[in-house]
Every structure is written in structure tokens, then in C-alpha cells.
Specification:
The structure holds two protein chains of two kinds. By secondary structure, chain A is mainly alpha-helical. Chain A is built from 21 helices and no strands. Helix content of chain A is 78%, strand content 0%. In chain A, helix 5 packs across helix 12 and helix 14 runs parallel beside helix 17. Chain B has six helices and no strands. In chain B, 36% of the residues are buried. Classes of the chains: A mainly alpha, B mainly alpha. Chains A and B meet through helix 1, helix 2, helix 3, helix 4 and helix 13 of A and helix 1, helix 2, helix 3, helix 4 and helix 6 of B.
């Protein structure tokens, strides 16, 4: 049974069967092979995996992301970031990274953030004469911050499939997000030193301008404060904070900024439902897969194999990071979480690794997977806005990927970076 | 035929909109109930969860129509045109097979569900579980259409 499952899955994926149905098929084949479990569990597990309140945050954060974009919040947050960062060399690239960080506080999706900021900043940077490959690469890389800085759809899925606190994971992403954001701004700075006149600062710093743009962005930033504040203080669960963000976003978009129209809302609901359904249906068929993996005691076998080969937690973490970076290059990050976490979590536990630390490390790693070619979700979005091909952009991505991997190593081997803040707020 | 399909898809979208709207209002009401009125409603979370099951399965049918479901398509691009056409047929056939199984088992599970009552709202679980066979049937329909299209593509010379 184990062999059917573990050989069947990669074969089905390689053939091009969509992840959700490949998981369902491989598990069904394994069940048929074993012959002892009635197939009705396929339908039953589909229902019980979707019948979950924490998972609902996926649906709601998808919607919150599109409200933020279409409701006029994204534009004003970018203007505020511009007022703060316009004084530096390579200012437009700094603004792109900074604005993505701020907007990541509202949306949990890297692609939504890349689209919201990229659609404004990529054309602006190109017009100013920045190197197009660099422009596309830095915006794609900044998109990884979307699911690192809370809220995060990747962390919602991770928390749900492993039964760990989503709130703690969210807060654990704050410091790694700030580190990576800072590193990416460093990449902008270094690139600009060689770049020539195009990269000179766009404007002088003025407190007046910071104040006006801040004032205009307050309703939009309020959405981030409501979501983050609710989670940090423990007032809301992730799902509840998401619904507050949605309701607040509608109110601001419809009556404060007046950029949303009521007749647009049904379309936004269907779009958010479809983008979520892609993830939810994988969760639905993966519930069965995870159940079978646990039943076949695959984690125990993996843990025993590693321990017999005298691996310690450091070796294990290096192996996991390498494996996830590799898979992140070729597969959708959320699918990797859903398939591998039922196996890796119990193994991490046997090595005595703090599961909160492990969860954040995995989430950050797979967020970097959104950027890595050839399959990178934020890379696709940035390339399509910039009308460039992934092949062209890839060399320009290397500095950003390099610093992100350094950051990844840092948070992997310095656990307090991920665990100190969450335990401070949610003991 | 295509008119009926269009109508069906619009009906699905309408259902998603209604259910999503009710879900948002319900969860929002739950938060308000807890903090403002100090009386969390007992039924809200359960209703929202059941709506989520429905939304996910209905929207998934629309995703099949728009080929939105995530897969790994490297082999597909590497294959020569004829091989690619055959591979696409194979993939659609396997997805269709799985959905057929889900439909059959989803219908079977309704009998089990019909004798259960939901703990919070006290409704028959049949209404909640109905999402599985209905969703599977709609996905199956869209998948069969894709399979038909890929077969036709094989017969018409490129």
C-alpha cells in the first residue's frame, strides 16, 4: 500500500494530473490495493476536511486581498510608502519593497500583493529608466513577503493541516518578514550604485508630504491594524480577523474611498471563491492522503531511517530546507505543505524541534518558493505585468534569491527569531 | 446545449455569491455576538462551515471549466504535439474517473448522513453532505466536456 501511494503520487503529478485529483487518485489506488478500507472514506474525508473553521481564513483573506486592491487602499498605501522612501537612491525600487511589506499586512497572498504593487510600480520604474530585468525581479522577490508578513494563506493552510496555532505562526512571520524586507532593500541599494543617473532619488523628504499621504492612507492601513492587532491581542482568531478585514474593507471601499461599486461585489465574491477553491479542493482530497500516511506509519519509518543514519536536528533542518527549496522551484507551495507536512511534522517532533519554529521556517522557505523559477507564482505575475519572460528575468533574480536564502539560514539556526515574538503575545 | 450550460454556470455562480454573502454575515455576526452582546451564537460556526463545503465544491466545478486547477505541466510542454494531445486525454480521463468515484461514494454517504443531526443547528446532515455528490456531479460534467474537447482535438488535424 505504501509503495502504491508513494510511487503513484509522483507519477500522476508528472503526467500532469492536477494536484487535487492526483492526491485523490493515488490514495484511492492505495486503498483499492489494500482492499480493507471501504471507498466511502473518499467522500467522507472530502467533507470533513472542508468542514473546518480555521480553513475559512483562506476564503476570507483572498477576498480581503481583492478588496484592498480594488477599493483604493493599495494605491494610497503606495503613496505613503513613496513619501517615506522617496529620498533614497533607487527610491522607486525601495518603495516597491516597502509598499509590498505594508500591503502584506492586509493580504495573505503573495500573488495579490505582487499584482497590487507591481501594476503601479513596475511601469513607474521602467518609465524612469530602471533596468527592466531588475525591476521585474525585485517586484517578484518582494511578493514573497505577502505570505511571510501576517496574515498568510500559506500559514493558514500549514496551521490547519498540522493542528497548530495559526495566530502564533502569523506573529512568528513578523521578524523574518522584516529581515527579508531589509535585505531586499539592500539589494536595491547595491544594484543602484552601479546603475547611473536613472536611480537617483525621486524627491526630497518632507514631513508635510508624509503627513498628508499618511492621513489619506489611514483608512487603508487601518485594515492592517485591525487584522494584525486583533490577532496580536488574541481578540480574534485568524478566521475572525479575516472577516473583520473583509467587512471593514467593504465599508472603506464603498463609503470612505468610494472606489468600490456595489455591482462589482458579486464578481469579486465569485473570483475569490474560485481562487480559494483551487486550494480548498486540494485540502479536501489531501485529508484522505494525510489520514492514510498516518495510518501507514510513514513518518515513523522516515524518522527511524534518519536517526539510524545518526542525523541530528541540524542535519534534519538542512535536509528539509534543501528539499523544500527544490520542490518550491517546481511545485505550488501550498500543495507542498499539504502533501509533506503530515510526514515531516511528526519527524520534526521526534528530533525535539520546536514545532512553532519548524512551522515558520517551512512557511518562509515555501514563500521563497513563490519566487524561484521555473515555477514561481509571484514571478509569473511580475513577468506578466512587465511583459518579460521568466528566462530573461532569472539572472536578475539571483541577488534577491541569495539574500533570501541567507535570511532563511538565519531563521533556521536562530530559533528565537521566530519563536520569541509569538510566545510574547500568545503564551 | 451551450445555452443550457451557460445557464447552469450562472446558476452555480449565483449560488456561490449567495452562500459566500451569508457566510460573511454569519461569521461577522459571531464576532459581534461574542464581544458586543457577550452572547456568542451557537449555530453560526457550524452554518459557516457547511457553507464553506458547498462553496468550495461548487467553485471547484467553475475552476475545472476555466482550467484553473494547479498541476505540474513540464512533461506536457516537453512532449511532441501528438504525445501532448494523448497526454491531455489521459489526464482528463483520470480526473473524470476520480470524480465518478467521488460522485458514487458521495451518493452512498447521503444514506449515512440522513440519520445524523448536526450538533449545533439540529439540521439533518443530509443537507450538508449533499454538497459532495452535487459538487462531484458538476465537476464531472465539466471534466467530461474537457475530455470530449481533447478527444475532438485529436481527430481534427492540427
Amino acid at each position: 500500500m505504501t509503495a502504491v501511494l508513494l510511487i503513484g503520487l509522483p507519477v500522476l503529478f508528472a503526467l500532469g494530473v492536477p494536484i487535487a485529483f492526483g492526491l485523490g487518485l493515488a490514495t484511492t489506488f492505495a486503498l483499492l490495493w489494500g482492499g480493507s478500507v471501504p471507498l466511502i472514506v473518499v467522500a467522507q474525508r472530502m467533507f470533513t476536511s472542508l468542514d473546518s473553521f480555521p480553513i475559512m481564513a483562506v476564503l476570507l483573506f483572498m477576498l480581503a486581498g481583492s478588496i484592498m486592491d480594488e477599493g483604493g487602499m493599495a494605491r494610497r498605501i503606495i503613496a505613503f510608502a513613496a513619501a517615506l522612501l522617496g529620498q533614497f537612491r533607487a527610491s522607486l525600487a525601495m518603495i516597491a519593497v516597502g509598499a509590498t511589506m505594508l500591503i502584506s499586512g492586509v493580504s495573505g497572498s503573495g500573488t495579490a500583493d505582487t499584482a497590487a504593487v507591481g501594476s503601479v510600480m513596475i511601469p513607474a520604474m521602467m518609465k524612469r529608466g530602471y533596468e527592466p530585468r531588475f525591476v521585474t525581479a525585485i517586484q517578484a522577490a518582494a511578493g514573497a513577503l505577502g505570505p511571510i508578513i501576517p496574515p498568510s494563506i500559506i500559514m493558514v493552510v500549514l496551521g490547519s493541516v498540522t493542528n497548530t496555532s495559526i495566530g502564533q505562526l502569523f506573529i512568528g512571520g513578523i521578524i523574518p518578514g522584516l529581515i527579508i524586507g531589509g535585505f531586499l532593500m539592500g539589494v536595491c541599494y547595491v544594484h543602484a550604485r552601479r546603475g547611473g543617473a536613472a536611480y537617483e532619488a525621486t524627491e526630497q523628504f518632507s514631513w508635510g508630504r508624509v503627513w498628508t499621504t499618511f492621513w489619506q492612507a489611514i483608512p487603508g492601513l487601518g485594515m492592517a491594524i485591525l487584522i494584525l492587532g486583533g490577532i496580536l491581542t488574541g481578540v480574534f482568531t485568524a478566521t475572525e480577523s479575516a472577516v473583520m478585514g473583509v467587512v471593514y474593507g467593504f465599508v472603506v471601499g464603498l463609503w470612505v474611498y468610494r472606489e468600490l461599486r456595489v455591482r462589482e461585489i458579486p464578481r469579486m465574491l465569485v473570483e475569490a471563491a474560485c481562487r480559494s477553491a483551487i486550494i480548498l479542493i486540494i485540502i479536501g482530497t489531501a485529508g484522505l492522503f494525510g489520514w492514510l500516511v498516518a495510518n501507514l506509519q510513514i513518518p515513523t519509518v522516515v524518522a527511524k531511517f534518519l536517526q539510524d543514519n545518526s542525523a541530528n536536528w541540524i542535519v534534519f533542518m538542512i535536509l528539509v530546507n534543501a528539499l523544500l527549496l527544490l520542490l518550491g522551484m517546481f511545485m505550488e507551495s501550498i500543495a507542498v505543505i499539504i502533501i509533506l507536512m503530515p510526514i515531516l511534522y511528526p519527524v520534526a517532533q521526534t528530533f525535539g524541534i520546536d514545532l512553532l519554529h519548524f512551522g515558520v521556517v517551512v512557511s518562509v522557505n515555501l514563500s521563497i518558493g513563490l519566487v524561484t523559477p521555473p515555477y514561481g507564482a509571484t514571478l509569473f505575475v511580475a513577468c506578466s505585468i512587465a511583459k518579460m519572460t521568466i528566462r530573461d528575468v532569472t539572472p536578475a533574480l539571483l541577488p534577491s534569491l541569495f539574500v533570501m536564502i541567507i535570511a532563511q539560514a538565519l531563521i533556521t539556526f536562530v530559533p528565537p527569531l521566530t519563536t520569541w515574538l509569538p510566545r510574547l503575545f500568545i503564551p | 446545449m451551450s445555452q443550457a450550460l451557460g445557464l447552469l454556470r450562472r446558476a452555480i455562480a449565483l449560488l456561490i455569491i449567495l452562500m459566500f454573502a451569508v457566510l460573511i454575515v454569519t461569521v461577522f455576526y459571531q464576532v459581534l455576538g461574542r464581544y458586543l452582546f457577550n452572547a456568542p451564537p451557537s449555530w453560526s460556526e457550524e452554518l459557516a462551515r457547511f457553507l464553506q463545503v458547498w462553496i468550495a465544491l461548487l467553485a471547484s466545478a467553475l475552476c475545472i471549466q476555466q482550467s484553473m486547477h494547479l498541476g505540474v505541466d513540464y512533461l506536457l510542454y516537453a512532449a511532441p504535439p501528438r504525445g501532448r494531445a494523448l497526454l491531455v486525454i489521459l489526464v482528463h480521463a483520470m480526473v473524470t474517473g476520480f470524480l465518478l468515484l467521488l460522485l458514487v461514494q458521495g451518493v452512498k454517504i447521503l444514506d449515512v448522513a440522513a440519520v445524523q443531526t448536526s450538533p449545533a443547528m439540529g439540521i439533518n446532515m443530509w443537507y450538508a453532505y449533499l454538497a459532495v455528490p452535487v459538487g462531484a456531479a458538476l465537476m464531472l460534467l465539466e471534466s467530461l466536456l474537457k475530455l470530449g474537447a481533447s478527444l475532438r482535438a485529436l481527430w481534427t488535424p492540427a
